[in-house]
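Q: Predict the bound structure with acetamide.
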Amino acid sequence: MKQFLLFFSFLFFFQLLNAQRNIAIIPEPVSVRELGGIFTLKNNALVQSVSADNSADAVADILIQSLQATGYSFSKDKNAGTADFRLEVLASPDAELGNEGYKLLVTPSGINMTANSAAGLFYGVQSLLQLLPKEIESKKVVAGVNWTAPSVEITDYPRFGWRGLMFDVSRHFFTKEEVKRFIDDMVKYKYNLLHMHLTDDQGWRLEIKSLPKLTSVGAWNVKKEGRFNYFSKPAAGEPRDYGGFYTHDDIREIIAYATSRYVNVLPEIDVPGHSLAAIASYPELSCTPGADKYVVNSGEPFMVWPPGGHFYGLLDNTLCPANEKVYTFLDKVFTEVAELFPFEYIHMGGDETARNFWEKSAAIKALMQKEKLKNLDEVQSYFVKRVAKIIESKGKKVIGWDEILQGGLAPNTAVMSWQGMKGGIEAAKQKHQVVMSPTTFVYLDYMQGDAAIEPPVYASLRLNKTYEFDPLPKGVDPDYIKGGQANLWTEQVYNMRHAQYMLWPRAFAVSESVWSPASKKNWADFVKRVEKQFERLDMAETKYAPSMYDPIFKVTKSSSNLPVVTLSTEISGLDIHYSFENSFPDNFYPKYQSPLTVPKDAQFMKLITYRDGKPVGRLIVMPVMELKKRAGIK
Ligand code: ACM
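A: Predicted complex:
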């Protein structure tokens, strides 16, 4: 009997362990209490939705759709006495859960979800899916899987109401189907806002019926492949057939799709800078005459960014604040934008306005005299305030990048802080609403690892740094911080596979920064959960970056003028193996122990990381010339 009991307590213990291993939810919920049993999903499960306004029914449909990989049939019954899944919008709200929170109870006899809204239930479904085996992410039916979830009680709600991802659909155009896929992926991690960067120097992506040239001219450039911003100048007659745009119907379709997944869509029309596509369409909007100069940029250099200095344009890509036609133009644009996008905010851009052509413009000088503007900051501020008025006249609130603070900002205008956190802190002090999206933590266009292996971009941002993101800096009044957002700029992102590579896993880190309580964040635990999510992304055929397995280089120089390489890793438990004689290292090669002086005649350092005898990193081929450059050796 004793042995019998011992056997069962072991069995219980292993079940518990198993359950613990299976719980790897991102973003980490507010509270998870493991109950020790197992729920097994069977064919012909009954799904019950309960809500006064029928809103839970849509979530029941989403749940059933999300369980398609089981190949099972489901039935729905609103009045069932008992059900395998019960989704309820509470008649009397649970104050702890707020608008988007949920309670999820998984027991061997069924699954019960409660929330104050359908959105809360939807997030409950996302957590539930992460409790099921990874195969649930497959788009095809997977046979032979034991569809179980550990018994658990989860109480969960977001830290911030604004949990955004920005998708730059201007630098490279992404189709409406690709945008929908982007939405599918983001909601799994409880993001609720898609910011569409719709206009830039490389393309105007939104049909404006009253300004047809914006898309007949402005949506098209010359297809180039290679490294953006280093391209040759297109020849005069080269076909401009690369790009695309969204019609009003496309936008309505995207918004309907987003809305059905509880996602708001924030449109951005980026002015007065980043406006070459608009100016190529309507050259009279520029302060600088020369209609023949203006073409939609195809990635050839046209702005200069001196290190630490003021950037300037080789071509005037700004709308002219001194030209009344610009305000008439923007009134037309924002009329249609406001009609199309139901979200309460419109983003007016406002970033990186090169002013070197304004300095020389007689029209700008006349405007400064007339309006008593002391400097170009005030000219910009004059523009921003006028545009804000136009947007507000359409019944919308205004948000812009943090440059809109320069020269003074109209009240009620919200600020998206990208140049670090300081703009956001200053804006909050001035009592503006703020969304934090600083380059320092959440710029997902930056390289995720060393430039020796990553597609080249001008800056790096590793996963561990992204994970440090906290949208609420110490000492700032939380009433002014709406939340946070990560930005995926696409100058170097030519297709959806690479967009996914840039998003994941860093967008996991951001989701945890905007959803989970700050006290719940834990890097080592997060990494374990990321690895579990990688298996799910594999099943979903979503690409991700394995950069967290690759080493970090620090290079100095020895007394004999040779590079000295110090290596480290972002995550623990990795062994780095290397060679200096051009062959491919594996785990039989020397293991990195301490800083290495590069042999005098070596041409390449090759490295790869292993864990428990298996390769996990990628082969890195580091030219010794590059190491010398980093060490400052001539
Ligand atoms: C920005 O990254 N220029 C907003």
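A: Residues 10-21 have pLDDT under 50 and may be disordered.
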